[in-house]
Fold these 2 entries.
Entry 1:
Amino acid sequence: MNIAAAVNESFANNSNYLIRSAMFVYALAFLAHLAEWVFGGRSKVAVQSAALTAEAQAEQDAAEAARRKAAQQVTVKTAGGSTVTLERPTVVTRASASDRGIEDGPGAAGGSEKGDLYGRIAVSFTVLAWLLHATGVAFRAASVQRAPWGNMYEFSTTFGAVAVGSYLLLLALKKDVRWIGLFLTTSVLLDLGLATSVLYTNSEQLVPALHSYWLWIHVSCAIISGAIFYLAAVGTLLFLFRDHYEVAVTAGRAQDGRWGDIMRRLPSAATLDKFAYRMNALVFPLWTFTIIAGAIWAQAAWGRYWGWDPKETWAFITWVAYACYLHARATAGWKGRKAAYLALIAFACFLFNYYGVNIFVSGKHSYAGV
Amino acid sequence: MSITEKSEREDLGAAGAQLSTAPADTLAETPALGVLGWLRWMWRQLTSMRVALILLFLLSLAAIPGSLVPQHSDQLKVDAFKAKHPTVSPFYEKIGLFHVYSSPWFAAIYILLFISLAGCIVPRTWQFVGQLRSRPPHAPRNLTRLPAYSTWRTDASPEDVTEAARKALRGRRFRTSVTGTSVAGEKGYLREFGNLLFHVSLFGLLIAFALTSLEKAEGGKLVVEGDGFVNNLTQYDDFSGGTLYGADDLQPFGFDLDSFDQKYATSGPEKGTALEFKANIHYYSGTDGKPVKGEISVNHPLSIGGEKVYLISHGYAPVVTVRDAKGNVLKSIVPFLPQDTALTSVGVIKVPDALGKDGKPDQLGFRGIFTPTFALDSVRGPHSSFPTLQYPALVLNAFHGDLGLDSGAQQNVYQLDTAHMKQFTDSKGQLVSKAMKPGDTMTLPNGAGSLTFDGVKTWASFTISHQSGNEAALVSGVGAILGLAGSLFIQRRRIWVRAVRAEDGVTVVEMGGLGRSESARIADEIGDVALQLLPDAPVRPEGEPPAEAGTPADAEATADAETTAVNDDEGARA
């Protein structure tokens, strides 16, 4: 392997500037999201005209349904050569039993045009920040000519870039996930703030134990898994709040306060739960692969594939906790809130494996330290 | 929630059954009387999903202490912990906190978990085999009760529609079975297969683990440049064998350490960071095989005759010549142990055969540090500032008296037991201590002798390990991932198409779908199949759009308005 690569300091400095600029733009995105939530809030006037809005909403829904129907027109050529437009048979779906029949909220903007504008601005800022962020990570990689995840600073910055990247990818796939934006920008700011202040390490070459192509495979998988687990955890947390809110609403308790106004705009509990599950289930096999790739590397580097090193142990604990969650979600009596708590515990294990094990526990992964 | 779901499934009868072989949970069941009844009850509890969940949770909980308390695989740390926490240590020892992963309670959890798992997957496997051999279940009487449903009227004959539907479903790789004018199709068996494969792979992993721990043997050896190693028990610094693999099973081979390369960054902000460690060796297999040139580096172990040799660490061994009061000479190469990345090393030199001035035994001992690049500051004292030999120095204190070697107790070669020794003092009563460059000599007071620092050699330490079960573990691991992917990403679903001639002579096509989970994709698939059927069963163009008004399906749908929703956008995109 190419080891003696010198550190290119100007690249490293550029990377630092880029990461700091990204933080600035993320902060702007964060403020824009805040504005989105504020303007989307139900003002006094809005409360009074709530009924009107509901009517307008109903009209809008009808228009939407018509549009959808139009989209389902199918053009079929008949044998005679003339073209007739046949309607594609409508598929009627029955909501599953776990559904309360409560529809998704309108999103942070809450139907307010101004709020929506700020939401769009926030997404644009996020895209710009992410571009700066990703370029910063790339510069860091170029400065050391290796994978940009050799220490906690690099791991944290790359982790943030992957988390935001996944969110933007979901947006690009036209998934309705803008509700996550405020929470994501907040935590990315925290993540980067922690990385640049506490965890910062100069651009450096790695100890020989890390000179292996498994560094690319094992750690990148860990980063991707973590980023998706994180998105799922946000979904799970919001599910718990929204579920609480829905229970109250179904029981007929008024939820007119500020809290209720925020909850009202979130997707329904069923949607949030489904989102969290899909994310977790999507990435669980990858997390399994991360552990196995780590074991293969450990076999080559340390002479055993499993040695109950603290990092390995916590990866295992995280894995079992997520397995618990996936099983719970398929078990009667454990669905919903209980499973959600398990998912949060599992993510807490992941976080501890990252921060806790690196900082408080010494083990064979300690060169990944601060 | 679960009750509603259950009753829903019951509505569908056989059609909804066995879409998965997941066990139905029998929660509130009281045991029947008698020993057999109790046993049966316990077995059912153990194999229930709830208990499996609890066991899984316990397993992750039980693994935690082992990551926080030092484990017996690192005995030095355990000893340090015991010395630091004398009050809790005996208790920790008693409940096995120093060897969590081989403790009975940890074993109890995973053994119970695996029994529970076996009790679950063996019946599931048979059920699955049964499902594979039988045909997809018939269409339920009332297709409108399915999660996704579609209907229209056509002029094509029911038989033609049935045949077209069968072809369409076959084309989509559904398993189909035709009864009269209805077709049942099922797809996604790989989900169940993946699920079973995953769980069986876990057993594979467990067996691989057991094999590995039974047959694993590992030993360590420190070799100084120019020296060699022969694979038999007497040569090891430490050796731990497995139950099935002991000292007698060691393969005959050996190697000589010719030289050790280490490269570090010499400038820039990363100065001192290691770039490369490489042991250049000659190795031979058998007792007198021909030596072959080779090298061992981190991440690149050497395989000889089924054993693997790993490079673990390296350091320096000062070469010293000690003279006692009577002029007896001992030349010795003493490995010092590195303490930091700049290889500040500590070590001791023991001279058990030294004689005092009076000719009686007066053992000598030296303790101190070796620095490859000597530096001195007020905080750290003498230390090394760079890991290569740029300005080597040896700083020693000297002792004489009884080394304590004859007491019979085993002694650490890197530690000096000064209980029965006195430190040399000079004429002014100052403790004797000297920092030496290569070639320097430390003269002991009162003609007690001297020590000359002749030079430095590099050493490397190796782990020689024998393992089995690696391949089994790898295969199981890969199986587990494939199984997981199958069981999480593949949807098992059924689609039924029924064509019946209505009273007015028009054929009514009904189509319903059922998936294992509440995925919106099933509705989408129904739509696609319907679209595919349209050329063979065109919608009757009499201005009577189906599912809009008048059909029984719609009546049902509106009656059930709360739980009915038109297929949403997400489904259309998925």
Entry 2:
Amino acid sequence: METLTLQDLQFFLPEVILITFAFVVLFISNKNKSSLLPFHLAMGALLGALIFTITQLGSEAILNFGTVEINTFSLLLKIVFIIFSIITVWGSKDFAISISFGKEYYGLILFATVGLTMLGSAGDLITLFIAFELTSISTYALPLIDRSNERGREAALKYFLNGAFATGLVLFGLSLVYGLTGTVLLKEIVPIIAEIGYEPMIVVALAFLVAGFGYKMAIVPFHLWAPDVYEGSPTPVTSFLAGVTKKGAFVVSLKILLATLIVIKIQVSILLGTLAILTMTVGNVVALMQKNTKRMLAYSSIAHAGNILVGLAIITELSVAGSILHIIAHGLMTIGIFFGILYVSKIRGGYDLGDFIGLRWVAPWTAFGLLIILLSLAGVPPFIGFWGKMVIVVSAFELGNWYMFLALALVLNSALSLVYYARVIRVMYMDNKGVEFNMATKQNTVIETREITAATKEIGKLRTSSYNIALYVCVLLITVTGLFPEQLVAISREAARFIIPW
Amino acid sequence: MSLLHWVIFTPFLFAFIVPFIYKYIRPIHTGWFVLPIPAALFILVAKHIPQVATQGQLRETIAWIPSLGINFAINLDGLSLIFGLLILGIGALVVLYSIYYLSKEKEALHNFYVYLLLFMGAMLGVVFSENIIALYMFWELTSIASFLLIAYWYQRKGSRYGAQKALLITFFGGLCMLAGFLFLGKITGTYLISEIILQVGQVKGHPGFLPAMVLILLGAFTKSAQFPFHIWLPDAMEAPTPISAYLHSATMVKAGIYIIARFTPVFGGGQQWFWLVSGVGLITLFWGSFSAVRQVDLKSMLAYSTISQLGMIVCLLGLGSVALYYGPGEGGAFYITAILAAVFHLINHSTFKGCLFMVVGIIDHETGTRDIRRLGGLMSLMPITFTLAVIGSFSMAGLPPFNGFLSKEMFFTGILKAAQMDIFNMQTWGILFPIIGWLASIFTFVYCMLLVFKSFTGKYYPEKLEKTPHEAPWGMLLPPLVLASLVVLFFFFPNVLANYLLQPALVAILPGLVGLSSEIEIIAPWHGWTPELIMTLGVIGIGIGLFLTFRSWSKLYTYLPQRFTLNILYDQLLIKTEDISRKMTKGYMSGFIRDYLLYIFSFLVVTVGGALLFLDSFVYDPTGNSTINSYEIVLAIIMLGAALMVLFAQDRVVAIIGLGTMGYVVAMFFVVFRAPDLALTQLVVETVTTVMFLLCFYFLPRLEKEKVSSSFQAIRVVISMGVGVVVTALALSAQGNRLFEPISWFFENSYELAGANNIVNAILVDFRGFDTMLEILVFCIAGLGVYTLIKLGLTRRKQDESK
């Protein structure tokens, strides 16, 4: 452990770039609302950060008295989060122009990204917590970024209240961990806890940590805010919250839970496993009935949180790799599908299931992209959503015992989830006239073939919308990584090796 | 990338080109461009026949996901060769047929051919993959392609229903199969089929043997429409007829059979496998043929007939697995013949059923209906179609001189032998095999006759038909003609087939028992006056009798329960899950944060309380505590009173005052413990918050009495009590746990280390100076925030004024 040298500063370059540009974006002139300057600045910052991070790939370092660790895990997550932010920013180009707080939107996303990039590399509890909070606080305002959206207020308030409550729980848990070990460095906590051995207070700490992070990860029974917030927020924000920042909570849980709870592995497994099964089942069962696609996806993303949690509950190198893989996969799918939905709501006026009727003829490529993402969400090969689940299930089978039930629950839930994903596919691809989802209150549920052709002409202009670009980028990544998952699987396994403390 | 990999990938790659061909070359039917693909690949694969017949198998591997031990390995042996040839051969015929069946003006041909090619590639992948994970991937792809193809005529409600049903059932089965594969992978440590087979001994002794077997069979049964999962196949008949002929009779539904055959060497030889496979096959055989008789839609009839024929093949595979029980030698020789019959019938079924589907397609195309109540007398109008129908259905009924006769005879031999088995509890139950098998054959005969004679003979009703029927174009007749001639050819030269295709397949299914050069039984139509022949004669006799008296006994079917069918079970299952889902949503997604908090608090009570209770974490150590004096008791009582006041207050102001009282009492505690600065701070904070509360509440609506049920109220009481108890216990045991030195060290050394008399100052600026600085920073940021808010308010007021 040495003091920081000038050479080590290069590892902070991505964060420095992001912070600098975040301020620049915030301070540029507010006069021209339709200016693309904030967009270009944000994209430039993210791309720059991405390039610098990629060049660091493969290096390993422990900086600043162990508070920052650079290794494959941290670099992989940095890259992933920056790419997620790039897609989000790219996709929200049209959105940011339409709202009055456009540059603030980019600024907040950049700040949140800094927090996320720090999550992976944080080496002690305090840095980790601060990075986590930076992400959370930056995003509290996002649901309300579009002031014309009335529902955003409820969403923002709920998100903030729940987030604050969760932070309190996390802090309580962390202080207990510190109280037990006397150190905040993750690397030191592991041997100390191993030395102390089984200490009952640590179970209490675990309960608080799981509850606190459970909030942020939106796992059952802490998930209740998620559907309301996701539905109420503007869709690009939903995409960022569900696809990007929520994944940050998983990263923190991975690091803290794995590092601190080594001595009570079995209790952790049982607790997380139970929560995982609950989360998957509740998420999927409730999603079955949702007619509002945004809300349906909120529940689906709860169910996916359960999938990721299964990997955490198993606690082997492979299962953690599976969790990392599924975090990446679900992030891509979520961002993509929310932007797809946004596009649909722009051309059809809403995001109820009825608005998707006959989408295949109105916007064939969007429908195709959504089809692929929906299949991937259901865990159908050969898309990346399949491999995440697959690796987790394989790891469960390697261990055997009751972990098999976890795997079985995951598999059965995948089958269950197909029911509602297939319904959207059916509506998009097969329903021509609104016969079955005849919700009398909505006008555009009954769509005749003639109207579609008339509408198609108007929509031609919208087709190059940035929303679609984000969707296509995600679909491309999902398919390519699904067909050739080797690189991603290998790097996830290597990353997992760094955070498994034994 | 070997040639065989390209065989799999070519259809996928071409699927990408099809939409462009469709878009830019409209005058020519897209099918003509697609046709060369399966035809060329067929020749390419067929070239391997001699090689496989002499060498047994061909293996090729490319790396795919080495970090998970998954490589894209390909294995071409006798079994996969037969399937590959069926997929490509019938694929080519179906494409040719579809060119005339689907109009190029009206239909979305690009979708059709894209899905078809996707299916073809996926199906080839299933049968050629040596790696079970890759196999699973292709397996699900076939489900998706089938889903898209069933729903090709999406305008029909039935086709959407059927597509969804097929997808849900086969996807569920596929996932089960994946779980089974992973079991196998765990037991053997490899995902390669050939390596798994080498470790059979290890698999058999393992506790995971049974679950793996059942799960894999679930996958196979759902895909091959075995009882009770057969319900999706009749609904899948909404697909265009070429698709029904291709996917739902010749290839995809046989994927399950492929899996059963492929894993026979792994699981076969035991009692469970035998009973599961042959039992389910037998039930399916009977139920399918029994249900087929009552159908009035020709395609539904064929669907049930497919179910029944698949059941027969499965049953034969189950019987044949007994060969593995006996091992090499005399005892098992007979059962090898059952496997031979299974593979032989698999080919035969594809030929005659493919032919029949195309015939039905022609009838549908020419008359506009498939309802046998409206059809009749088509014989003179469509003589060639009639001949084809006769060949196909007589073969299916098991009559000579068609290939169905040969395999049916072999099936009879099999079930007769089964009756004499003296292992696996067959002594008592074995007699059921010939009885049920024979009954099923009679029903098979009856529906075959219904199929031909109801539609082609009898009276012709032109007024019931939408179109005027005439003979189909040659392009539509050619594919069934090819298949029909194969039906006849296989009857006369079965042993050519046996030598080049069946024997290598046997080697693949029963490795170690059958060699490439070993003798297998010669398939022959005439064995003398055997029991099998008598059974066939019985089938024909009784069958003709039943056919002639069909009108009088078909009413029996109306007595069958209509309410408790499997279809209704499936529908109810979906409806019930939605019901549960709706109830759950209504039950707890109220949208109120106060309700959500209940769940959170109960979780904390359960986990933290549970940890304290069950893990002996509760420690109460009163040794360091000072004695309790009378002031403190009085203060505690006041505090309790204030807390109760908050609880039962009807008005917000009262509640706030109660809360404030509690705060002031805390300040009093500080006074009692001689900490005036803390007491002062507490008083100030308490005053400010109370005042702010009161100011804020002025703007809020009146507190209304909530209407909550008493049970909900009780839950709240229990949970709040629980939280209280748990937090108290936690506080007490946190006091009791002391792992480190107390921080009183700072107090004792403050003078020497910091030169300060005031301990608080020394801590703030010396010992924890860095923290203080950060705290100041936090205040700065908060101040900035306040400033921004004020400024925002001012500018907005200005804007309002200027408006």
